Amino acid sequence: MNFQLTEEHLAVQAAAREFAQTELLPGVIERDEHQKFPAEQIKKMGELGFLGMMVDPKYNGGGMDTISYVLAMEEISKVDASASVVMSVNNSLVCWGIEKYGNEEQKQKYLTKLATGEIIGAFCLSEPEAGSDATSQRTTAEDKGDYYLLNGTKNWITNGSSASVYIVIAQTDVAKGHRGINALIVERGMEGFEIGPKENKLGIRGSDTHSLMFTDVKVPKENRIGEDGFGFKFAMSTLAGGRIGIASQALGIASGAYELAVKYSKERKAFGVEISKHQAIQFKLADMATNIEAARLLCLQAAYDKDTHADYGKSGAMAKLFASKVAMDTTIEAVQVHGGYGFVKEYHVERLMRDAKITQIYEGTSEIQKIVISRELLK
Predict the structure, then answer these.
(1) Residue 209 in contact with residue 196, Cβ under 8 Å?
(2) Is 363 a catalytic residue?
(3) What is the pLDDT of residue 377?
């Protein structure tokens, strides 16, 4: 059992940390305030290889392992969770899904551009009445021979207005239930495809979250991923890996808040000494650090399972369940350590607290993670 990171891992971690501090930190509060998508920063992330980290180099990817991805996600998320969720969706859901299950033509047409950030992707599963219950797809893809006729609405779609490629999960044969669902690659600009207004969110406000409407959109048969009826299995398999990305995001949010709390505790004085010398603050920091380290080990375990081709369904769900709770708990305590200043936007921790909440909801709520974990335990 080896807990040491390789030189390559440390180099990836350092590169991500430097990018976050030099490129993402300036203007992050303003982007949050004005709900501004970090377009320039995302473009640079693509150029540096952060948007296709695990993609095979023959498709313009970095060819890195999942551990490298977790390390980079943590560093980016410490500073800007709105940027890291773009990174997570593009890497874990879109690139991985197409590389794992797409055909060679789809990889050449879409993956080669997604891996470099020339274009970014979106994953479209949730609907107004189908969030955690992903089998209840109301969006339909009617088989018309050489194309599908797509109709329906998708909700809460990350990269909703900035993506060029959308993987849409839709029902083709209701009688077959989840075995009648397909995954289709939809291109921006297809006739009948409309993007709704941007959601005004509590956190990750720089991320562009939209509803998408499809009205008689003709999607060529060659844009279907996998065999007919493979869509639900595709979605569940892709989300299992996506949870590692979101767990890493939660870990980063917690780590970022903790680092700010430590720094502030050494600067702020109360009763004649730095507040870090008060046991009440020391105990908070001790709890935060311990929980963060436990979350980090769970994230790395899930990443290791994925890299070694072991079953990572349970470990990924555990990582997301625990890390998202740690993110919420840690950010609340970080605000408390800052006192009144923690309630003010310029000190960052209130934003991290708002960003933390979504990690307990998207890509499978904490309740869904418990279902996934318990099913594995009781097999």
Answers:
(1) no
(2) yes
(3) 97
